[in-house]
Amino acid sequence: MPLSGSFLQELERIVGADGLVRTPEGRLVYECDMHTFYKGAPDAVALPKRAEEILEIVNLCRRERVPIVPRGSGTGLIGGAMAPVGGVMIGTNRMDAILEIDLPNRCATVQPGLINLSLTRAVASRGYFFAPDPSSQMVSSIGGNVATNAGGPHCLKYGITTNHVLGIELVTGSGELVRLGGKAAERPGYDLLGTAVGSEGTFGIVTAVTVRLLHTAEAVKTILASFTAIEDASEAVSAIIAAGIVPAALEMLDELMIRAINEGTGAGYPKDAAAVLLIELDGPAAEVEAQGDRAARICWERGALEVRVAADVAERALLWKGRKEAAGAVGRLAPTYLLQDAVVPRSKLPAIMRELIAIGARHRVQIANVFHAGDGNLHPLILYDDRDPDELERAKAANEELLRACIEMGGTVTGEHGVGLDKAKNLPLQYAEADLNFMYRLRRAFDPDAIMNPGKLLPSHPACGEGFRPARPRVPDGAWI
Amino acid sequence: MPVAARSIGAAFVTIAGRDRVRDDAGSLTAATVDGLRPRWVVRPASIDELSRALALAHDGGLAVIPRGAGSALELGNPPSRVDVVLDVSGLDQVIEYNSDDLTITVQAGISAGTLGALLAPHRQWLPLDPPGVAARTVGGITATNASGPLRARYGTLRDLLLGVRFVQADGVVTWGGSKVVKSVSGYDVPKLMVGALGTLGVLAELTLRLHPLPDTERAWLVLLGSAQAGQALVERLVDSPLQPSRVELFDASALRLLLAEPASAGVAVSIASVAEAVREQGERLSAMAKASGARIVPLPDEFWSKVESAMAPPPGFTVLHVASLAGRLADTVSAIEDAVRAAAPRAEVRLSGGASLGTFRVLVGGASVSEMAAVTTRVRAWVAEVEGSVVVARGSVELRRAVDPWGPVEPGPFALMRALRDEFDPGRVLNPGRYVGGL
């Protein structure tokens, strides 16, 4: 939908000429996020510097019924920060200041465009860190982390973004600037903050975030164990958890992934390993020491081929090296891949791994796996050659089947990446009509005109305007006279 | 069309069975809420019955008060109407326990004590310890977002509730969240239901994240000359690598009930981990206390259950929950003491607080309604400075008429809350008037 000249003039008045991208080449940069499957350039990109500007833009768009797409660094993996129906994209990159660091209350307030890692860098020397650590943390914005409720390898122990957000300032789709939550631990009324975190820009756009800071752990211990069977590695995971150990991270790589990594950078995993388990413990030194020994013993007991314990920071980095390069390493196996983010109950890991092999065989695609084993969050990479349309179709079919298998085992379609455009169609696998209907109505309270990031998070509904209609229970006959 | 009470009663019986619908004077009087006697007490045995009972109440324009163990009925505004007390304590089944996954799905009416006994043999627990926890239902703890000293390490149900099945005001059974420990598919509906006092739906089934029971837990009490000294100690503690699971501040009158020896203030610190780490952290805590000239005493295992009874309100006492900031611990204690001294000079105060969080539980006895209202207002005025809050967690119906038990909510968020309430319960079937701002 082309925007009118007067609309664009108004937009330029709000953000200034240097804060408005109008040219086709300029807009093209914003046509997709890291899920490059989904493309849709906005009709204009506004790059505000202040919350008040965002408020004005939202109210302008509301008046003119123009869709708004919020965007941080565009590193999402779900087709969230792209404009399927055009409209105005609001990029928060120019709002990247740290507004306050409040160590006595162990929190910081930042603008949404601040890069995740920048916050930890700003407080590290004083012994603190910001816990959510998505793999994109060197480039992803905290506003984006809040929108997608991002996770990361260390969320097994520390929780995902929502567990670390104390307050936000939000411009709602109804054009109001509201503060939800805050530094104090309690606030009477509904937990609007908890509901808004992870709403993927469909409630509004965040203009400031107050986050919790944690004290840096005294000790860290990283252990790498290799196994000849993925079942053994999965059992080791269960045994570690059953022993009451909550590692900071518990990551697994499967055989295909190990091969890809070994052929590439040479992380030096044993050649006949079918599974590699990376265990990281942190906390008080005595606890880490005792639990590390116990975890290593459990791995040996489950038939580990090899157990390596990092002795220092350099060795720790080496053990993580392969894991961190996993996504890049599969480039050696196939030109491209579909990345999934489904979750199964941890105890179902061996079963889902068997199922994945069957699904891959059925659709004649290779599936490499790297995943957060501690919480059952899978990241299967379904490899395909994008020059072969048939292979793409097979990869997509395998993808859908895989999601269905995870749901059947009691899981969820996304553990940490979010829904976006990519998985909106999959939500009915997991939710009944009544559940989706509740979510539509929830959204309406924040964004009555449905202008905020349309098409994302919720599937488009069959009954126009009304959303899904749940069946009501029957009231007994004869209740009325 | 007018609705006949007799036919509604008969319909409840059709839904839940004769022995699960009470309308005799004794039962109704026992179920009185803030002086309002219901017309029926309905105790559904299944989610289906719960759903149909709510649909009936909805269509009949009845006001419904959901009740678990009945321990938080003095929370919130007195309801504007009461027709049905919906007793969910009959929904007490365990649906699915996956100990390998550290998750459990239970019906909302199960008591925390029953749940704890079921989990203990697996060396797992739901780490929540609000006062009187064992008798409370898990649904009630969720609806009121109640917590205790363990919040310092484990958070509240906000951090532990993974999935929730609830029944909306019109009887529609709805599910939100997931059954796995990590999910971001769709909106975080569980968080919306935590602390909503059942006003957006009656909680029916909860999927909870469990934690492993620590190998060992030991606690120490640091005795201090003032709240100021307590704050200094807590600051050193949280700025250290120590990982306490409870850090609780007590005033002199709370200490008198807990310990034979008098002190102006005390901070109890509990460490839970493997035995070596507990011992080692205990030594560091001792060093920390001694360096600041304070005395430290080891505490017996039953200390935390003593805290629970010491901080349970005797008859006639009011309970305030004060949320301030950890960095203003001592100031908040002074503000509370000053407010009582000024507004209710003859009153008795007992105080404990989540010292690393800046939250307080304040018991006040011997104050008249107007004095207590004035105390509440004064403390509220002070915490407004740090954007905190004061909630009357327990108080007489007269007090909760004299002063808003929730305190103010900013207009922006309140407009959203009202929009949600209007969307999901426009007829105000569920807990009418009890929630914030009379919602």
Please render the helix and strand layout as text.
The complex is a heterodimer of chains A (481) and B (439).
Chain A: H1 5-15, E1 20-21, H2 24-28, E2 44-46, H3 51-64, E3 68-71, E4 88-91, E5 98-102, E6 107-110, H4 116-123, E7 128-129, H5 142-148, H6 155-158, E8 165-172, E9 177-181, H7 192-196, E10 204-212, E11 214-215, E12 219-227, H8 230-242, E13 249-254, H9 255-263, E14 275-283, H10 285-301, E15 306-309, H11 313-324, H12 326-329, E16 336-339, H13 349-363, E17 366-372, E18 380-384, H14 389-408, H15 427-430, H16 433-446
Parallel strand pairs in A: 2-4, 3-4
Antiparallel strand pairs in A: 1-2, 5-6, 6-10, 7-11, 8-9, 8-10, 12-14, 12-15, 13-14, 13-17, 16-18, 17-18
Chain B: H1 5-16, E1 21-22, H2 25-30, E2 40-42, H3 47-59, E3 64-67, E4 84-87, E5 94-98, E6 103-107, H4 112-119, E7 124-125, H5 138-144, H6 151-154, H7 157-160, E8 161-167, E9 173-177, H8 189-193, E10 202-209, E11 211-212, E12 216-224, H9 227-238, E13 244-251, H10 252-258, E14 265-273, H11 275-291, E15 295-299, H12 303-310, E16 318-323, H13 329-343, E17 348-354, E18 359-365, H14 369-384, E19 389-394, H15 397-402, H16 411-424
Parallel strand pairs in B: 2-4, 3-4
Antiparallel strand pairs in B: 1-2, 5-6, 6-10, 7-11, 8-9, 8-10, 12-14, 12-15, 13-14, 13-17, 16-18, 16-19, 17-18
Helix pairs in contact in B: 1-3, 9-13, 13-14
